[in-house]
Amino acid sequence: MTAEVVAGSPRANLFRRLWPVLKWVLFALVIAFVGRRAWQLWRDGDVGSVTIHWPWLLAASVLYLVGWLPSVLLWHRLIHGLGGTSSRWDVARAYFAGHLAKYIPGKATVLLVRAGMLADRGCRPSVSALTSTYEVLVCMGVGAAVALTMAPVVWPKTIIDGLPVAIRPAFEHPLIFGIGVVVVCVVLVPFVARVLGLIARKLTPPVVTLSSPHPVTPSDADRPTEPPPAQIGSTFLLGWCFFSVTTWLVHGLSLGCALRAVGVQAPLSDWLIWTGDVSSASFLGFAAMFAPGGLGVREAALLELLTSQPGISQSQAVAATVLLRAAWLVAEIVAAVGLSWNGLRRRTRTRSVSEGEGERFR
């Protein structure tokens, strides 16, 4: 057994060294493929059909931020469930700053940034990282369920035709298929709650507090640094899963606004289709661990989904895909900077009031 471990150790070390290189190679290949594909669609499409309407693009940005509010509330609720005292304002500030961190290589960077920003705002870093992992898994899990529910009306016909013959008939009845997916998801909630707990603890990076406002005592040395084991209750998880569906519905509206922004006559009756497009592309981008922020992967999926739908030209699909990424990125920057600046003002004002009261009693 020892010989096997020793023999396997060099392989593991070699994989750890090669994996960062492989990730960048995969990322570069995806970006090159998507860029080439987008250019072909743009060149071969009807470029004249693309007309930019900026108010619709602004609406897409606003709806994107609004769509994340259920996730902010869920994270705040989880933090307080583990004894944290962070305010909703501080949680929102850390949440959107973490969104920007997803463009830094390494998915765990998001959790580290959020944990660091709440370290002195009423939440231990280990608790913040764990609860943030829970929130991400719940949100993306719901996104995957929504994407699967809408698959019969969203997936291109070429993909459906390539499915096994035994599965293909189910896609011919979208309503029954969707109801079946929802029922299966509800039945599996207790099992999913347990699995989420295991995955969250596995994915949560170790977070070390470099400084503490309180002196360390001998009794603190024996105190565990990690949060106490926490299990999401089935009823709690089910309620928040249904609430998180609104995230993808609002993001679907955001895509609809982006389509309107490039000249597509997008009727509101296509809302559920937009929701399926966004949830499918976002989940695939999240699952691609080698792509920072899902960059390239999400665009590739969204391009194929949009070009397969009637009423959207190839050039409009390319323009909507690119502008949606830009609108969402700008919205994240504005939210993170605005919340941080306002938080700094509030702390400065509080410090000034405290200093004024101190001078009064001297």
Overall pLDDT, averaged?
A: 82
Q: What is the structural class?
A: mainly alpha
Approximate shape: globular
Work out the radius of gyration: 23 Å
Largest sheet: none
Our estimate of the beta-strand percent is under 5%
Distance between the termini: 72 Å
Q: What would you call the quaternary organization?
A: single chain
Number of helices: 15
Percent range of helical residues: over 70%
In total, the number of strands is 0
Number of domains: 1
Characterization of this structure:
- The chain is an all-alpha fold.
- The chain has 15 helices and no strands.
- It has helices at residues 2-44, 54-67, 69-81, 88-101, 108-118, 125-149, 151-154, 157-161, 174-187, 189-203, 218-221, 234-261, 271-287, 297-307, 314-360.
- Helix 4 (88-101) packs antiparallel against helix 5 and helix 6 crosses helix 13 (271-287).
- The longest helix has 47 residues, at 314-360.
